Amino acid sequence: MTALQELVRDTAGGDPISGKRWTHRSLRFLLKGLKRRGITASRPTIARLLRGLRFSLRTCRKSKAGIHDKDRDRQFRYLTRLRNLYLTRGLPVISVDTKKKEWVGDFKNPGRCWRREDRQVLDHDFPSWASGRAIPYGIYDLACDDGMVVVGTSHETPSFAVAAIRRWWLEIGRWRYHDKKRLLIEADAGGANAARKWEWKLALQGLEDEFALIITVTHYPPGASKWNPIDHRMFSLISANWSGEPLESYETILDYIRGTRSPQGFHCRARLDTTDYPGGYRVKQEDKAFVRLRPRPVLPKWNYTIWPHDRPAKR
């Protein structure tokens, strides 16, 4: 037992609360190390001794934040206050994000599902074998616990993201909130709806002018996208619904999204957008001047309101 402890001493980690410990040394490595010390033991015996020392098999967990902005907590508090203010007044609050892009074809999809036999799929996930790429952009309504996913076929650009929001507003939002002229959008700090992208803000200005909306955007701090409600209230359900199923066509993807349900009553709409959204658009200075951007008093780098052109700007 002492020799085994010496072999794992420098490679052991542990949990000070539960007392569990772990090592990256394999049983084969420990078996050879004990033999060099003149000790003979089988792998099952070594495994039993490790368990007696409170070691266990462990995996890596994504729990450490790689980025921790100094204003992170302040932004979370402000975002929560603003969200509650809108919800208590019956104003629309949506959470938006782009789900993981998927190659469309007879490819392996992570996960398992109940079948009598294994499903045979292509042995490689070469993009050249795919019939296209699906870019799911989601809009989740926090008040009503439902959403819409617009599946794009071109590129993930700010213009595509705002086009998806516009589609949600046309089909659902303006009827559900017909007498409301304000909209709160919760978004990540990066991606198509990044806080620094002027193309995103310019596209939102066009949406506001079209429907006379006053849109306020609050961004989650860098490295905090996992707290965006759409990820754990909508995207996780969709991923579970098509777990282990090949996404053979765009219609298959749309069907799985539309069939996503939860015991609490969540449901989701799905639409296909085949419009071409070319990337590399550069916003000119006159375009920036066109945007009626009003930074919020708290952390304006992540919080701002954009006003339509047909009414005076206020804070």
Blueprint of the fold:
Blueprint: H1 2-8, E1 12-14, E2 21-23, H2 27-36, H3 43-52, H4 72-88, E3 93-98, E4 102-104, E5 132-141, E6 146-152, H5 158-176, E7 182-187, H6 198-211, E8 214-219, H7 229-241, H8 250-258, E9 267-273, H9 285-290, E10 293-295, E11 303-306
Parallel strand pairs: 3-7, 6-9, 7-8
Antiparallel strand pairs: 1-2, 3-5, 4-5, 5-6, 8-11, 10-11
Short structural description:
The chain is of the alpha/beta class and 315 residues long. The protein contains 9 helices and 11 strands.
Mean pLDDT: 87
Number of strand segments? 11
Distance between the termini: 70 Å
Give the helix/strand class. Answer: alpha/beta
Portion of residues in beta strands equals 15-25%
Query: What helical percentage do the residues reach?
Result: 25-40%
Shape: globular
Backbone CA Rg: 25 Å
Looking at the chains present, what oligomeric state does this protein adopt? Answer: single chain
DSSP helical segment count: 9
Secondary-structure element string: HEEHHHEEEEHEHEHHEHEE
Largest sheet: 9 strands, mixed
Unreliably modeled segments: 10-22
Overall description:
Helix content is about 35%, strand content about 20%. The protein has 9 helices and 11 strands. It is of the alpha/beta class and about 325 residues long. Residues about 10-20 have low confidence and may be disordered. It has helices spanning about 1-10, 25-35, 45-50, 70-90, 160-175, 200-210, 230-240, 250-260, 285-290, and strands at about 10-15, 20-25, 95-100, 100-105, 130-140, 145-150, 180-185, 215-220, 265-275, 295, 305. The strands form 2 sheets. Strands 3, 4, 5, 6, 7, 8, 9, 10 and 11 form a 9-stranded mixed β-sheet that branches. It has a two-stranded antiparallel sheet with strand order 1-2. Helix 5 (about 160-175) runs parallel beside helix 6. The longest helix is centred in the middle third of the chain and has 19 residues, at about 160-175. A hairpin with a 4-residue loop joins strand 5 (about 130-140) and strand 6 (about 145-150). The chain is globular.
